[in-house]
Amino acid sequence: MLNGEGGFTNGPYYVPASTNLALPLNQWTRSPANQFDANGNFLFASPRATNALKSFYSLQLPAAR
């Protein structure tokens, strides 16, 4: 589980994930869009298989327009 605060109210965020930390971020698998809550908080949970390798995660916000 990942959680945090300070995001944009109801704004989108993504959580890229990889089992290889050395891969460039653009090669990580990005989750579908998630949404910060009305207070700018987020909670992201990723189910983990019992035979899964270690996974690494990042928080990604959309580019400003």
Description:
Helix content is 0%, strand content 26%. The strands form 3 sheets. Strands 4-3-7 form a 3-stranded antiparallel sheet, with no helix packed on it. It has a two-stranded antiparallel ribbon with strand order 1-6. The protein has a two-stranded antiparallel ribbon with strand order 2-5. The model has no long low-confidence stretch (mean pLDDT 87). It has no helices and 7 strands. It has one domain (2-57).
**Which stretches are low in confidence, meaning pLDDT under 50 for 5 or more residues running?**
none
**SSE succession:** EEEEEEE
Q: Assign a percent range to the helix content.
A: under 10%
Distance between the termini: 29 Å
Mean pLDDT: 87
Shape by Cα distribution:
globular
**Secondary-structure content class:** mainly beta
Number of H- or I-type helical stretches: 0
Task: Describe the strand arrangement of the main beta sheet, using strand numbers.
Answer: 4-3-7
Count of extended strands = 7
Number of domains: 1
Percentage of residues in strands: 25-35%
Q: What is the rounded Rg?
A: 13 Å
Biggest pleated sheet: 3 strands, antiparallel
Secondary structure elements and pairings:
Layout: E1 2-4, E2 12-13, E3 16-18, E4 29-30, E5 34-35, E6 42-44, E7 56-57
Antiparallel strand pairs: 1-6, 2-5, 3-4, 3-7
What is shown here, in short?
By secondary structure, the protein is mainly beta.
Features:
two-stranded antiparallel sheet; mainly beta; 0% helix; globular; three-stranded antiparallel sheet; 65 residues
